[in-house]
């Protein structure tokens, strides 16, 4: 194996009687915005003849010349060029293509953005830069890769990076060691679909092929094939499509697709030649003394392609065994990269009729279809995330292995994981949600999404409602500082929002068994616990499941010192207890600060850090309790000595390093209704980091800490009891060892893989709720299926509210939308 030079890019061009184009391409490469001492250009001449070889050797351009001595095809020429290369990255550029000045630079930046990016596909335009050559990759079910928008004007639509199944061999980059690991381009192809096959095999091994629109090349397109007849190209396309399909599809997919692919190849051959396949039927008259029938080469190209597939079958079977044995990604995982598989490709009338017969009779498109799952969260997605966004992105990550997943944030978002899409749809622009609702098969919503987006409210797709956060119970505490009328409106508004969700959902997920009992009561009150839902499942697990907040199965990493010895006032040998989340009105941090003050008298090394004061969503205001707890710490003389406030929000991926420096985790709250049904997600981070836990009794985690001896649970507002509990968790080594051992035992049940299992299982076979499916097919609406309303009160904000909504929708969606909403309101009264 060649010793590779770090940072060097080797560009391979294959020349076959196209020396003028090749020299032009080399000249453009030497204009690259990339250090020339890290750019190696290799030209392989594929048996062009003495004249072309002489011109190339006589050129004063800087490149390495390799004479193959024969026409090895695009595959053999490229492979030979790689053998003579030295760069850690190999690029392939058609000799009739010219690169943009940033072609190499942008591709290399893409490799740097992800260690799992094995190859980069360039954006390729025609020579004039007007029309598209390559911007997306797609694969038909019968093995022919294609470029969906080839020939279309470049409208600027394809300017986002994305993972693709393959890149075009006209302009692409690949890690040299990976290219060698894959065995290079398959020499049996000669040319055509060798790039499709390489990209598919790369993806099967778990690497990503990344499309980079900033890495641009301009291509004349098939200059080499202009020297041959169309039938030779057709032969290679037909044969190589069968090669590609046979080698790379999994057993289940291959069994379903391959018979139809062979039948379709024959039908194409007959259609191209406008042949009458009934000519030899005994029922049709004819001169049987004539032993031949005129058949055009375009027809025989397809037949010969099939025959040569048969000829190569032993070696193809061996290749298939190797590929299938080494693959780490299933067909289901890759299906999202195939694009539109239902593409006939050839506009031949008889062929298209046969295509429809094969597709509908053999069901080739039904195998391994991935569902499309849309997850909508109100919180920001990015480096700094609060609970709802963390939960939404973890759902997406777990579901993306089996489905196409798109996460929508209603505020702001950045891509955090390549396995799913992330999109921002502001609630001020409800029309933007329309295309996403149309795309989805299953929709998962949190918060107020159904109220904000009429298209979600009216969706006929399977609807999963995440009610892990009881908004109305939260408002009982959050609005306590407002006047009583405003407070009451907030509570009733949250109740109305939730009742509306309970009416519309097909499946609900909550955070704990205790919560599930609460929600079953509210579902019963809204008419969703009925004969139909009960008949399907007497335990109603098919209607509402427990999907708690989870923790990562990957242990946290301590990359650098974050707190001890870094925060002024916190020494390396101090005992650190952390408050791992925001400070909200329903918590009781004041008792905690007083307890730390009491403990500090006898244990001066105790330090308390509030890890995050400012919410990651700037639209969420700071609550009154923050100022109160700061004032309490100041009044006791603890601020900067024993109590510390981190005024920013720690990035989600960095929190583990902070937690690993802690000696215990704490969460204190008041005993009230919100506490009873809450699910304190910060406790999970303590489990993740193997910390003893000190918490208040009264919620589900308080019970868990006490029952499983994960730390100490104390009664609310008990300063001395809390100080004693902290002392035990921080300074009693025997007790600490016991707590940590129990944490190790319990935490596995809360990993995201386990926590999200009910949702993952539901999405494998999503079904409408039993009562909703009947409702949609019924002309009469029964009493228990009517819209849910909070009894004995007017619609919130009354006529003014309704008029305001009408004006908003008139401006954003037009008069038809307003008329439709009025009709919908009347129908459901």
TrEMBL record:
Species lineage: Bacteria, Bacillati, Actinomycetota, Actinomycetes, Micrococcales
Pathway listed: Cell wall biogenesis; cell wall polysaccharide biosynthesis
Species assigned in the record: Curtobacterium caseinilyticum
Keywords: Glycosyltransferase, Transferase
SUPFAM superfamilies, sorted: Nucleotide-diphospho-sugar transferases, UDP-Glycosyltransferase/glycogen phosphorylase
Keyword rRNA-binding among record annotations: no
Name this protein carries in UniProt: Glycosyltransferase
Domain Glycosyltransferase 2-like: 10-123, 158-223
Enzyme's top EC category: transferase
Family the UniProt entry places it in: Belongs to the glycosyltransferase 2 family.
Signal peptide positions on this chain: none
UniProt-listed Pfam families: Glyco_trans_1_4 (PF13692), Glyco_trans_2_3 (PF13632), Glycos_transf_2 (PF00535)
The enzyme's E.C. designation: 2.4.-.-
InterPro entries to which the protein is assigned, alphabetical: Glyco_trans_2-like, Nucleotide-diphossugar_trans
PANTHER family found in the cross-reference section: GALACTOFURANOSYLTRANSFERASE GLFT2, RHAMNOSYLTRANSFERASE WBBL
Keyword field contains rRNA-binding: no
Gene Ontology MF annotations: glycosyltransferase activity
């Amino acid at each position: 194996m060649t010793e590779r030079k770090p940072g060097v890019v080797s560009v391979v061009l294959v020349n076959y009687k196209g020396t003028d184009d090749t020299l032009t391409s080399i000249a453009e490469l030497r204009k690259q915005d990339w250090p020339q001492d890290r750019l190696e250009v290799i030209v392989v001449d594929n048996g062009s003849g003495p004249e072309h070889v002489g011109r190339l050797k006589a050129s004063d351009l800087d490149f390495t010349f390799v004479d193959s001595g024969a026409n090895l095809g695009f595959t053999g020429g490229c492979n030979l060029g790689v053998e003579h290369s030295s760069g850690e990255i190999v690029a392939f550029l058609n000799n009739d293509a010219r690169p943009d000045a940033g072609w190499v630079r942008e591709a290399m930046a893409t490799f740097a953005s992800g260690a799992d990016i094995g190859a980069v596909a360039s954006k390729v335009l025609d020579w004039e830069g007007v029309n598209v050559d390559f911007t997306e990759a797609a694969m038909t079910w019968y093995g022919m890769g294609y470029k969906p928008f080839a020939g279309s004007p470049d409208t600027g639509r394809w300017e986002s990076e994305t993972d693709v199944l393959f890149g075009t061999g006209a302009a692409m980059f690949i890690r040299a060691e990976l290219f060698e690991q894959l065995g290079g381009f398959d020499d049996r192809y000669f040319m055509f679909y060798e790039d499709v096959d390489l990209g598919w095999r790369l993806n099967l091994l778990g690497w990503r092929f990344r499309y980079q629109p900033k890495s641009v090349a301009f291509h004349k397109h098939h200059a080499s094939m202009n020297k041959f007849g169309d039938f030779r190209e057709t032969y290679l396309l037909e044969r190589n499509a069968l090669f590609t399909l046979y080698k790379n599809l999994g057993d289940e997919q291959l069994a379903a697709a391959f018979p139809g692919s062979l039948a379709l190849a024959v039908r194409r051959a007959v259609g191209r030649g406008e042949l009458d396949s009934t000519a030899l039927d005994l029922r049709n008259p004819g001169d049987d003394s004539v032993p031949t029938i005129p058949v055009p080469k375009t027809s025989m190209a397809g037949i010969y392609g099939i025959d040569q597939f048969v000829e190569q079958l032993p070696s193809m079977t061996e290749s298939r065994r190797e590929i299938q044995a080494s693959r780490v990604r299933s067909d289901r995982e890759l299906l999202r990269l195939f694009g539109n598989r239902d593409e006939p490709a050839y506009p031949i009338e008889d062929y298209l009729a046969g295509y429809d017969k094969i597709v509908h009779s053999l069901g080739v498109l039904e195998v391994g279809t991935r569902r499309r799952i849309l997850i909508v969260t109100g919180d920001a997605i990015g480096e700094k995330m609060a609970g709802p966004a963390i939960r939404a992105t973890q759902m997406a990550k777990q579901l993306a292995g089996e489905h196409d997943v798109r996460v929508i944030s209603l505020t702001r978002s950045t891509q955090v994981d390549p396995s799913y899409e992330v999109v921002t749809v502001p609630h001020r622009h409800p029309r933007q949600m329309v295309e996403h609702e149309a795309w989805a098969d299953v929709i998962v919503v949190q918060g107020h999404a159904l109220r904000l987006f009429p298209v979600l409210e009216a969706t006929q797709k399977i609807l999963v409602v995440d009610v892990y956060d009881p908004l109305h119970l939260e408002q009982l505490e959050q609005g306590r500082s407002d006047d009583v009328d405003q407070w009451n409106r907030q509570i009733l508004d949250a109740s109305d929002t939730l009742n509306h969700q309970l009416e519309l959902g097909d499946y609900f997920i909550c955070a704990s068994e205790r919560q599930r009992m609460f929600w079953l009561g509210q579902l019963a009150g809204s008419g969703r616990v009925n004969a139909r839902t009960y008949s399907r499942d007497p335990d109603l697990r098919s209607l509402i499941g427990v999907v708690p907040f989870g923790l990562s199965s990957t242990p946290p990493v301590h990359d650098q010192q974050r707190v001890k010895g870094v925060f002024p006032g916190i020494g390396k040998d101090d005992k650190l207890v952390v408050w791992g989340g925001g400070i909200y009105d329903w918590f009781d941090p004041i008792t905690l600060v007083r307890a730390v003050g009491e403990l500090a008298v006898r244990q001066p090394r105790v330090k308390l850090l509030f890890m995050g004061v400012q919410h990651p969503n700037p639209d969420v205001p700071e609550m009154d309790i923050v100022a109160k707890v700061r004032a309490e710490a100041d009044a006791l003389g603890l601020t900067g000595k024993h109590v510390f406030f981190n005024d920013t929000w720690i990035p989600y991926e960095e929190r583990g390093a902070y937690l690993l420096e802690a000696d215990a985790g704490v969460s204190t709250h008041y005993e009230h209704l919100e506490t009873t049904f809450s699910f304190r997600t910060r406790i999970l981070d303590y489990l993740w980091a193997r910390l003893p836990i000190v918490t208040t009794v009264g919620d589900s985690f308080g019970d868990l800490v006490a029952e499983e001896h994960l730390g100490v649970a104390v009664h609310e507002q008990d300063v001395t009891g809390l100080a004693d509990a902290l002392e035990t968790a921080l300074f009693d080594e025997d007790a600490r060892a016991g707590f940590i051992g129990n944490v190790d035992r319990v935490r596995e049940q809360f990993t995201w893989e386990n926590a999200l299992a009910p949702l993952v299982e539901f999405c494998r076979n999503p079904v409408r709720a039993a009562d909703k499916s009947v409702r949609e097919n019924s002309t009469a609406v029964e009493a228990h299926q009517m819209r849910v309303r909070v009894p004995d009160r007017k619609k919130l904000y009354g006529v003014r509210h309704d008029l305001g909504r009408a004006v908003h929708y008139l401006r954003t969606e037009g008069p038809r939308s307003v008329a439709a909403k009025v009709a919908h309101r009347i129908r459901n009264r």
